[in-house]
Design goal:
Blueprint (H helix, E strand, L loop, with lengths): L1 H16 L8 H23 L8 E4 L13 E3 L6 E6 L10 E7 L3 E7 L2 H8 L2 E9 L3 E12 L2 E9 L9 E9 L11 H8 L8 E11 L5 E12 L14 H10 L18 H10 L16 H16 L1
Antiparallel strand pairs: 1-11, 2-5, 3-4, 4-11, 5-10, 6-9, 6-11, 7-8, 7-10
Amino acid sequence: MFALEKSFSLLESLVSEAVPRNSRKMRASQARWYRFPIVLSAIVVGGLFCSDAPADTFISGYEGDFGSSIGLEWNPIGDPANADFAFVDDRGVTQGLEALEVTHNTGWTHSLQLDGGQLMELVANSDTFELDVTVDGFNTSWRQLFFVMQGNGLGWSQVGIDLDAGTGFDPYVTTNVSIDLADPNGDGSANWKQAAIDSLPDVENTWWQIHLIFQGQDLTGESRVATVIDNLRFVGGPDADFNDDTVIDGDDLALWQSDYGADVDGIADADGDGDSDGSDYLAWQQQFTGATPAVGAVPEPSTLAMLVAAIGLSAARIRR
């Protein structure tokens, strides 16, 4: 609480001292900063009743259907004879009650596609895409997943992942696949996140797709093999550590205040959309850690009156 009160005190002083009282530009500056406490108050009131720091975005768990949390359906793609799908509850389940088993050819089998512009914003605002992939630990020789993204401003771009085939002693072996959206191949050759960010201004007219492709062999030499997937999710989100010191505190708030209203390339740009605005402040407010880097904290509703009072005091000082 002390760190929080100190941060609120800093907020009040930042707003008050931002106006050059004896400058010829005082009137214009006042006009800008009259609005600042009002905007900030509205953001804070909303933010206090928001959820905790930006959470991972769960996409699909295949609980008996091909649906997703964002209203899109996974579509089987390619020749139907190349892959069969079944919802299973006795293997590969890492969340919920069921997972999806894909029985596919040993060669490159284009199996599933998720298609919708909503994906672009998730890619722009997340750090990784992750899923859990399970194979038969007794019988798998090798297995690969190819994960593909394409969309507005991004041509077909894929990354291949070698899955853990086990040692022959475990009935099932699960690989947690984690794909860095800013560098999926690990060599700087592609940046899905930046492509999505660049397309954000045209979000209503854009398109984006994810494709899942499988291949591999079993020790027994069958022509078709099974791979189970579950718990598909985007991980990470806006980062309010504007000065990169691992602590989200008043220093970061000061950077946001100095960048507030900037249109492009602001330092205090938590969501990576090219400006410093209310959504970036919300990210700071939700991720506030104060002096303790390892522990996140969100201002409690009981502090609302104190913060709004500080903002009101700032506005009063500006008017004098």
